[in-house]
TrEMBL record:
Topology versus the membrane: Multi-pass membrane protein
GO annotations of cellular component type: plasma membrane
Alphabetical keyword list: Cell membrane, Membrane, Transmembrane, Transmembrane helix
Subcellular location, principal: membrane
Transmembrane helix is among the record's keywords: yes
Coiled-coil stretches: none
Domain ABC3 transporter permease C-terminal: 298-414, 684-796
Classification via InterPro entries: ABC3_permease_C, MacB_PCD, Macrolide_Exporter_MacB
Location in the cell: Cell membrane
Protein name as catalogued: FtsX-like permease family protein
Membrane-spanning residues: 20-42, 291-312, 339-367, 387-413, 434-454, 677-704, 716-744, 764-784
Top-level lineage group: Bacteria
GO MF annotation list: transmembrane transporter activity
Length: 803
């Protein structure tokens, strides 16, 4: 019996090829888009879930209360904090510190830049990063390292790496290490990224004051006891903060810090391991907004919903052409349940074909999807039982929704009215119109969000940052090269080159370079009886000249002066000091000799535009310690200038990697998440509009077919083609207008909320929504007009005769 239902359903679809094609195409595209977006969301939600004791693993951060009720969270902790927590907090079972960056690694003639992380030995017992070969206790020795399989393959060409000596550039010097073991590669869904692990003891050896509580530069991770809670740990940590930060807490109270609900002005808090990926405070890996995966799911739901709405509308529309079949079946004794099953089986066939085609299409589009949104997915993810279960559940739900309602509606026709030819679908017309409105609400919403996103991204990319982004090349100092010698050699070789205007260097990059770096250094101290917190940048001579920073007062660093103990500050720093004329004033921190302010520069955005400009102090750094060289070039031939810099750098540093990039590219890389979001919304908007228009076109065909007699009568009575086109189009455009009125306030609310994440943002203009609405109206009109014009130009005698 079931086989007969499917056979009849297949024959019916064969007789309705146009509508079957519209439904199959729409559902295929929708399923494919939903599958890709769903895989992306699943990937984001499963970050760090492969660790065995993930519910007991946390990262800690410090919350510093400020005057006025605000707070300043920071995940940078002092070196001695970890052992103190291990000793003095009963809730803590294990603690591990985590820090590192890309370093040059060498073996024989091979040299490459790899991600080196310094961790405590407890790191491997807390987290599930298995050692496949070698000594699992290698991290207990400061002279040993663990390599991932991929790093070992690249460095040793599949040779045996255990026991081999590699050299890692640390603190501008090559240091030998023995390969103690090989680890499994880090999963793509891990917040922790590394290619080499070595002991945190190497960091301690490089520090002048390893016991200092003011040097806060390290991430601290804890594993709680089995019966302990994060709240219990935070409560126990209060005693630690009062014991070791007494002076700092006193200064904060003196400066008017507003206590939190527990009466604390300086406290420790926790970030659960599974929340690290969604927490910007963490600074481990690349954090994204928690809404991002939900947004992917919402987009997938919208696209599938639009395709399902098309299916429902077309099924209800086709009921007019199938009235005779329905009446005959009922007259011959068919039960309503049998009719429902018959019509639902047609929906099942269409959805099944669409699902199979969508899997094939997803496989073909996956490389492009990965390239567009910077993912690395494969269809192997479909082997996951949870993913398969989700796909089947969604498929059955969509099939029941898309096929169930039309089947229930059609099967309920009155047999007498059907056989008399008095079929009426008043309620279904209301439902059809409602569903069309929903479709265009989604379309208008996506168009409006796309426009606002594009405007904000353009604003971020074009807003003046206070320094020269377009002519300055940022060049990481990597490879086996002495930084001081490299800087001096580069300056001498480029001196007199007409393409080069200035050369400087710094310990930190601006924006996010090709080496993936994005770091800041903060210092807090007392100045004339009140606390001061500032960002610190160590720079070389000609830094202001190279970046075109505007000097407000005082002077720049000058080689004719002894400038080892002088600094230049920005306007925000001068304001924080409370000095109208800060030139000549002295600052002191970390019990080091005081430094004198010799210059003030105009504020510039040295961080992302998500954040406001901070107080900044710039100090001369010894050339030996520079990490980035900045070269200002002529604007006339930027690609040619880059090629010259690359050639010179490879001569100076033949074993290093050239990773030069213009600062405007570095800036754009800071907004990768926003660019990805814009790409997904734009793609979703295009798909939503295409699928909506397919459905609207098919509905227009059905509606116009039902009004052929009316159109013929109007033409005979003298109606023009234009008036008939207007008559038909207005009915649909009214629905689009209703959709615009509903979607506009929703779009404004959503995008205004999103814009609050930026310290610098656009103001949403009213014309944005006018343009979005006009776009929806124009798209809908052109979709309908082809069929409307065709009906208006039809011979009225022919239409009346067929009626």
């Amino acid at each position: 019996m079931f086989r007969n239902y499917l056979k009849i359903a297949w024959r019916n679809l064969g007789r309705q090829k146009v509508f079957a094609a519209v439904n199959i195409t729409g559902m295929t595209v929708a399923f494919c888009a939903a599958l890709l977006l769903g895989i992306a969301a699943y990937h984001e939600w499963t970050y760090d879930n492969f660790h065995k004791d993930s519910d007991r693993l946390f990262q800690i951060y410090t919350e510093e209360r400020l005057p006025g009720g605000k707070s300043l969270p920071s995940s940078s902790e002092a070196v001695p904090l970890a052992p103190v927590l291990q000793k003095e907090c009963a809730a803590v079972q294990q603690v591990a510190r985590y820090v590192g960056e890309v370093e040059n690694v060498q073996y024989g003639e091979r040299s490459m830049d790899l991600m080196v992380r310094f961790v405590d030995p407890s790191f491997l017992s807390m987290f599930n990063f298995p050692v496949l070969k070698g000594d699992v206790n290698a991290l207990h020795r400061a002279d040993q390292v663990l390599l991932t399989e991929k790093a070992a393959h690249n460095l040793f060409n599949n040779g045996n790496a255990i026991g081999k000596i590699v050299q890692i550039k640390m603190n501008n010097q090559l240091k030998p290490f023995t390969v103690g073991g090989i680890m499994a590669d880090v999963p793509g869904s891990s917040s922790f990224d590394f290619e080499i692990l070595t002991s945190f003891g190497n960091v301690i050896q490089m520090l002048d004051e390893p016991d200092s509580w003011s040097n806060e530069s390290y991430r601290t991770l804890i594993q709680l006891q089995k019966n302990a809670s994060a709240a219990a740990f935070e409560k126990q940590s209060r005693a630690v903060m009062h014991k070791y930060y007494t002076g700092r807490i006193s200064d904060m109270v003196r400066d008017g810090a507003t206590p939190d609900k527990g009466g604390e002005v300086l406290s420790l808090h926790t970030i659960p391991l599974r929340d690290i990926h969604f927490n910007e405070v963490s600074k481990i890996g690349s954090a994204i907004s928690r809404f991002y995966p939900w947004m992917l799911v919402i987009m997938a739901f919208m696209i599938v919903s639009i395709a399902a709405i098309n299916f429902i509308n077309l099924s209800m529309g086709r009921s007019f052409t199938r009235a005779g079949e329905i009446g005959l079946r009922k007259a011959l004794g068919a039960l309503r349940g049998q009719l429902i099953f018959q019509f639902w089986s047609e929906a099942f066939i269409i959805c099944s074909i669409a699902l199979l085609m969508s899997l094939t299409l997803a496989g073909l589009l996956l490389p492009g999807f990965n390239a567009m949104f910077k993912y690395h997915f494969t269809l192997n993810i479909l082997k996951d039982v949870r993913v398969i279960t989700g796909i089947i559940s969604i498929f059955l739900f969509v099939t029941l929704m898309a096929g169930g309602y039309p089947a229930w509606l059609i099967s309920g026709f009155n047999i007498v009215e059907v056989l008399k030819g008095k079929l009426r679908l008043g309620k279904s017309s209301f439902m059809r119109n409602t569903l069309i409105i929903v479709q265009f609400i989604v379309a208008v919403l996506l168009i409006s969000c796309t426009v606002v996103l594009w405007q904000q991204l353009q604003y971020l990319r074009s807003r003046p940052l206070g320094y020269n982004q377009h002519q300055v090349i940022s060049l990481p100092v990597n490879g086996n090269v002495n930084a001081a010698q490299a800087l001096g050699s580069l300056r001498s070789r480029l001196d007199g080159n007409p393409h080069v205007l200035a050369v400087s260097a710094s310990g930190m990059n601006l924006g996010k370079g090709l080496d993936g770096s994005e770091a800041n250094w903060h210092i807090g101290f007392d100045y004339k009886g009140h606390g001061v917190k500032m960002a610190m940048q160590e720079v070389s001579y000609d830094y202001a000249k190279t970046l075109d920073l505007q000097l407000v007062s005082g002077r720049d660093f000058t080689k004719g002066y002894v400038d080892s103990q002088v600094v230049i500050i920005n306007e925000k720093m001068a304001l924080q000091l409370g000095e109208k004329d800060p030139i000549g004033k002295e600052l002191q921190w970390d019990e080091k000799p005081p430094v004198k302010i010799v210059g003030v520069v105009k504020d510039f955005n040295f961080k992302s535009l998500h954040q406001d400009i901070e107080p900044l102090t710039m100090k001369l750094v010894p050339s030996l310690q520079v990490s980035y060289i900045f070269i200002k070039v002529q604007p006339a031939d930027l690609p040619g200038s880059m090629a010259i810099i690359e050639k010179v750098w490879k001569e100076i540093n033949p074993r290093g990697t050239f990773q030069g990039s213009f600062l405007d590219d570095n800036t754009n890389r800071m907004y990768k998440a926003e660019s990805r979001l814009a790409g997904i919304i734009i793609s979703s908007a295009v798909l939503a509009i295409i699928i909506s228009c397919m459905g609207l076109f098919a509905i227009a065909v059905l509606v116009i077919a039902q009004r052929n007699k009316e159109i013929g009568v109007r033409k005979i009575l003298g109606a023009s083609a234009a008036s008939i086109v207007t008559l038909i189009s207005v009915d649909f455009l009214k629905l689009v207008a209703v959709a615009i009125l509903i979607a506009t306030p929703v779009a404004w609310y959503l995008m205004n909320t999103w814009l609050q994440e930026f310290a610098y943002r656009i103001h949403i203009q009213w014309w944005t929504f006018v343009l979005s609405g006009m776009a929806a109206v124009i798209i809908a009109f052109f979709t309908i007009s082809f069929q409307s014009i065709r009906a208006a130009l039809m011979n009225p005698v022919k239409s009346l005769k067929t009626e």
